[in-house]
Amino acid sequence: MTTLRDAAMNSKAWPFEEARRVLKRYEKAPPEKGYVLFETGYGPSGLPHIGTFGEVARTTMIRRAFGIISDIPTKLLCFSDDMDGMRKVPENVPQQEMLRANIQKPLTSVPDPFGEYPSFGAHNNAMLRRFLDTFGFEYEFASSTEYYKSGKFDDWLIRCCEKYDDIMAIMLKSLREERQQSYSCFLPIHPETGRVLYVPMKHVDAKAGTVTFDDEDGREWTLPVTGGHVKLQWKPDFGMRWAALGVDFEMYGKDHSSNTPIYDGICRVLGGRAPEHFVYELFLDEQGEKISKSKGNGLTIDEWLTYAATESLGYFMYQKPKTAKRLWWDVIPKAVDEYHQQLRAFEAQPLDKQIDNPVWHIHGGQPPKSTMVVPFAMLLNLASVSGAKDKDTLWGFMRRYAPEATPEANPDLDQAAGFAVRYFNDFVAPTRTFRLPSDKERAAMEDLVARLKALPDLPLAEIFEDDPAEGLQTIVFAVGKEHGFEPLRDWFTALYEVLLGQSQGPRFGGFIALYGVKESIALIERALTGELAGA
């Protein structure tokens, strides 16, 4: 009998493939530190977005997979680079003038524009942690400011002094000539202004553990590199942190991929072993541009969760992490329905297929049963034609379609109904454009109405014993074929555009079964009179 570990060692699911790479690091001996360290990085220069969450979600999936194939303990460290200087003011936060007055100060020294936390960095850290906690991630949180100021990095900063020339040699190769003249891997914090200074070093004293430099006014200063007086530029900081903490795995976006040799090289110069990497493709906004914390484009975590459950977001993160994906409102319904399709498939799958199923990785091997008997896309269309303002209206139709369904027995359906009404009113309703049917389409729709009226006045379950939705779909299909629609997709597109005001929609037989035969007849007749198109 195949065990879970055996199946996992042969799985082609990307979390298991990555977990096996991490395990190979310790095929000769376990880690001296006693655990395998997975790390994610977060730059709190703006409000956290879904890309930030994605790193933690995906790393957690790999960590869980590692726990199946190995008995070595693991940790997940979520590291915030909150000592970075604020290089520019995010566009989507209040008190812009106040923030501009604090440019170049460490994020944990910039006042919170929301007035809720000791600093802007602390505010953004709290937002990230709040969501990670809500989602149930197991992690340890680490603050760059705390690590630098408490002395946790002191020994490694002294080592950076000792290896300064080697680090600079790695960095200078990657810089343009004019940048080389002013570059230093050390960034002093000005003792008076508190700003992060990007100035060259006049002298680095490894024995004393100090750096000497001139500030922007030409005054010379000498500061210890320890105790939070100095931090590292972000690329050297990556490598130093890997070495200092013994990081075994870290993923980052494609925009970092060209820096991988730099991060690895600095880690090795300092005596560390470079971790395993996983480079994922970037999320794109509606216009196909990279999402950005400072721009506030794309979706936020809270925005997604306003219209769909957390599990659908986990599903979106699981899918093809090395493929660039649009992260916009229209991906939410598809993610919800595909997630539930995978849940329904899971129960009947053999073990080797179950661990390749996304829901295994979303739920740590214990996915729940789906009670979503009506697809989310169908709920949106039902909200459209019924004019629903709340989920109770949708339940009136759903009880007729699935008499056994209740809010208590089908909690995910109940939740989705509320999401669907909200999503429809916010995104679908404002964009609908109804049109009149062509002569050919009108004849076909009149035929469809006649066939629906000819059905016996009985419950659909008695008319179509096996599957009412499929029986009605057969009728719709036959009408399209007999009226010469080729390809047949044009017939269904006509139904969606004329009846729903959009170019895509549900399986129409299922829609009729859910909305009701008499109600569907009335809808088509309203469209044929021009009422829906405002004619």
Automatic annotation (TrEMBL):
<dbReference type="GO" id="GO:0006430">
    <property type="term" value="P:lysyl-tRNA aminoacylation"/>
</dbReference>
<keyword id="KW-0030">Aminoacyl-tRNA synthetase</keyword>
<dbReference type="GO" id="GO:0005737">
    <property type="term" value="C:cytoplasm"/>
</dbReference>
<protein>
    <recommendedName>
        <fullName>Lysine--tRNA ligase</fullName>
        <ecNumber>6.1.1.6</ecNumber>
    </recommendedName>
</protein>
<keyword id="KW-0436">Ligase</keyword>
<dbReference type="GO" id="GO:0004824">
    <property type="term" value="F:lysine-tRNA ligase activity"/>
</dbReference>
<dbReference type="Pfam" id="PF01921">
    <property type="entry name" value="tRNA-synt_1f"/>
</dbReference>
<keyword id="KW-0963">Cytoplasm</keyword>
<dbReference type="InterPro" id="IPR002904">
    <property type="entry name" value="Lys-tRNA-ligase"/>
</dbReference>
<dbReference type="InterPro" id="IPR020751">
    <property type="entry name" value="aa-tRNA-synth_I_codon-bd_sub2"/>
</dbReference>
<comment type="similarity">
    <text>Belongs to the class-I aminoacyl-tRNA synthetase family.</text>
</comment>
<keyword id="KW-0547">Nucleotide-binding</keyword>
<feature type="binding site">
    <location>
        <position position="293"/>
    </location>
    <ligand>
        <name>ATP</name>
    </ligand>
</feature>
<keyword id="KW-0067">ATP-binding</keyword>
<keyword id="KW-0648">Protein biosynthesis</keyword>
<dbReference type="GO" id="GO:0005524">
    <property type="term" value="F:ATP binding"/>
</dbReference>
<feature type="short sequence motif" description="'KMSKS' region">
    <location>
        <begin position="290"/>
        <end position="294"/>
    </location>
</feature>
<dbReference type="InterPro" id="IPR001412">
    <property type="entry name" value="aa-tRNA-synth_I_CS"/>
</dbReference>
<dbReference type="InterPro" id="IPR008925">
    <property type="entry name" value="aa_tRNA-synth_I_cd-bd_sf"/>
</dbReference>
<dbReference type="InterPro" id="IPR014729">
    <property type="entry name" value="Rossmann-like_a/b/a_fold"/>
</dbReference>
<feature type="short sequence motif" description="'HIGH' region">
    <location>
        <begin position="44"/>
        <end position="52"/>
    </location>
</feature>
<dbReference type="GO" id="GO:0000049">
    <property type="term" value="F:tRNA binding"/>
</dbReference>
